[in-house]
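Subject: design request, 227 residues
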């Protein structure tokens, strides 16, 4: 059979599909590779769903036994701000500001005014009909994670605490660098906690709102930024 006739026979299904280099020869490896990729993707998705479920589910022997592995997978990219069967609404509004410090040629320190990075995120959300998840949640969740690992102190007691401090610091540095010209080598955060007042009774009575609380974090060194 001539080459043209053989090609036509292969196309209409009447020819020999097992010719070396033909469709049948290539189909096997392609199918194997495709199924391998599908299997890996499905396995990854199933593992992700399982780990996130253990993270948001009430404490149980399995989640406690594998807490370190679950936290390593979930934080900081897949953090969930909710829990199964126990919603935890926000009770405090956090207002986070940052100031930077730069050492001049003569060795003197120059400290910038406070810059409200929470207001920057809120403004981006307010004027955007489709606000990004980053603008809405990144800073708030980074601070919540910092609180969970440090409480009222600022000395890390675990590698995860160090990671959360670096994560919060890098977010603040990126916010400043994007909106303020100049260079800086360190920064400090000021966090103002404003309690959300509880709903009042129908007769208008209710508890008095708690006063705001201000917390100053230590100065943190950052990679030198110049803009």
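Subject: RE: design request

Done. Sequence follows.
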């Amino acid at each position: 059979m001539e080459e043209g006739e053989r090609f036509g026979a292969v196309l209409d299904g009447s020819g020999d599909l097992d010719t070396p280099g033909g469709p049948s020869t290539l189909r096997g490896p392609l199918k194997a590779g495709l199924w391998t990729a599908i299997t890996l993707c499905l396995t990854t998705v199933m593992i992700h769903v399982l780990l996130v479920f253990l993270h948001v589910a009430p404490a149980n022997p399995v989640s406690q036994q594998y807490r370190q592995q679950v936290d390593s997978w979930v934080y900081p990219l897949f953090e969930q701000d909710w829990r199964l069967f126990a919603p935890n609404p926000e009770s405090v509004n956090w207002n986070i500001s940052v100031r930077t410090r730069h050492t001049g040629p003569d060795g003197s320190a120059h400290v910038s005014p406070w810059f409200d990075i929470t207001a920057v995120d809120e403004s981006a959300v307010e004027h955007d009909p489709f606000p990004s998840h980053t603008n809405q949640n990144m800073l708030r969740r980074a601070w919540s994670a910092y609180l969970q690992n440090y409480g009222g102190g600022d000395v890390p007691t675990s590698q995860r605490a160090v990671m959360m401090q670096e994560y919060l610091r890098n977010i603040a540095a990126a916010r400043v660098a994007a909106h303020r010209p100049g260079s800086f080598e360190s920064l400090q955060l000021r966090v103002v906690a404003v309690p959300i007042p509880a709903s009042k009774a129908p007769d208008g009575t209710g508890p008095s709102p708690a006063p705001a609380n201000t917390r100053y974090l230590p100065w943190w060194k950052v990679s030198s930024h110049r803009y």
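Residues 23-56 form the longest helix (34 residues).
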